[in-house]
Write a structure and sequence with these properties.
The chain is mainly α and 292 residues long. The chain contains 16 helices and no strands. The longest helix has 20 residues.
Length: 292
């Protein structure tokens, strides 16, 4: 698949994810937050295109430089938007995109993600830390070992030969994106992508996006919520989502969905990790269609 086609699909996925409404607890086309607006996410989805295309061109499988391209995309976003709008999406999208670029069929992508992640380097880890710091994203590296906020973090990574895969593996127990990137991406490939790919055959783009988001959240408690408020609150939100999905065919579903969005917004429950997984799932669905 051509790098420019993969890049366009990544941009489309980013735009469709943020456009989904009312996508509970997140910025969407009818809901802004105090520190970021819907348009910020649209812009950030556009500006990653050049980097994704470059990452997918003449891939060196032994040294795919995933960290370099994650940093490059986040730095480019920072030139246009002064908020962390897409770090998670970039982290998920980059290995999927590069894997697609070296795959002969859709079924090769997941295995190639594992291959590429296993071939990440210490430089990739340092670049990832720089990307996290540019985005000012908390949680992934806040730990006693290799704390991303530490001034000496990158020296420690180099001294201990820690690759990007290694540091994400450390964060995997409490960060869903790290768990996905080091664990065969089960939420994306086994929950999100199949759900979206089926729904887009019979539903509007918007409904497919929102229902995919809800399906992921109902299965996987959001780690952004759990880091801010604890695992019990994250589980509570997931159970509420499960109850909501049980009435998806009822006449008052849309009203209940809007009420849920309002409830999460009011209580500052932001399932941002789920949004990232949704964008990645949409991306994979488009890749599937273009491989067929």
């Amino acid at each position: 698949m051509k790098p420019e086609e993969i890049a366009k699909m990544a941009q489309i996925a980013s735009a469709l994810e943020v456009s989904g409404y009312p996508k509970p607890g997140n910025v969407h086309r009818t809901r802004d937050y105090d520190d970021m607006e819907f348009e910020d996410f649209v812009i950030s989805g556009i500006v990653i295109g050049d980097t994704i295309r470059e990452a997918c061109t003449d891939v060196d499988v032994e040294n795919p430089q995933l960290g370099k391209y994650i940093l490059q995309a986040v730095a480019e976003t920072d030139r246009w938007i002064k908020n962390n709008t897409n770090l998670g999406i970039v982290m998920m999208t980059t290995p999927i995109a590069v894997a697609a670029a070296i795959s002969d069929s859709f079924d090769d992508i997941r295995e190639n993600i594992k291959l590429l992640m296993g071939n990440t380097s210490v430089d990739d880890a340092c670049d990832l830390y720089d990307a996290i710091n540019i985005a000012d994203a908390g949680g992934m590296g806040n730990q006693d070992e290799y704390d991303v906020a530490s001034d000496n973090a990158k020296n420690e990574l180099r001294e201990n030969n820690q690759t990007m895969y290694d540091v994400l593996k450390i964060s995997a127990p409490w960060d869903m994106l790290a768990r996905e990137m080091t664990g065969d991406m089960p939420a994306v490939f086994e929950i999100g992508y199949p759900t979206y790919h089926e729904l887009r055959q019979s539903k509007s783009q918007n409904d497919a996006c929102v229902l995919t988001f809800l399906t992921i959240l109902s299965h996987v408690p959001d780690t952004l919520i759990s880091r801010k408020y604890g695992s019990d609150d994250a589980m509570k939100v997931s159970l509420m989502t499960r109850d909501l999905l049980n009435i998806r065919d009822e006449p008052d579903f849309k009203d209940r969905l809007k009420e849920f969005d309002d409830y999460l917004f009011k209580n500052k429950y932001n399932p941002g990790t789920t949004a990232d997984l949704t964008a990645a799932s949409i991306f994979v669905s488009y890749l599937k269609s273009n491989f067929e």
